[in-house]
Amino acid sequence: MRERKSVKFNLQKQEHQNGHLSPFKVAKLFDPDASWDKDQLGDVLHWIRQSLALVCGLLWGAIPLVGGIWFILFLLLSSGIIYAYYALVLKIDEEDFGGHGALLQEGLFASISLFLLTWILVYSLGHF
Prior knowledge:
transmembrane helix; endoplasmic reticulum; RCAF1; 5 helices; transmembrane
């Protein structure tokens, strides 16, 4: 009996080391009392920004919108949503994660690339 418990514990320990302990819980995304480490929060902010970039790029290209004002609107919308998420929803102390600059920069350049690529491709395909 004791042997099975130690085998089970060792398997759980190996799963934890491999990063396969348990699936990420969606409820944690909206829980202000949840604990976050810097990498987890950075990943969540990064993927929120990428999702928003894809949606805005598809929308801007499909409408079709042109001009720099729409690019600036994407940047403001993206940064505003990220700020509102970590400051108002999660209510974290930004100084623990490197300040506002570090959190607002998380995933920014990749999202700009994805937004522009999606916007240009969808806009171009609509004009053939």
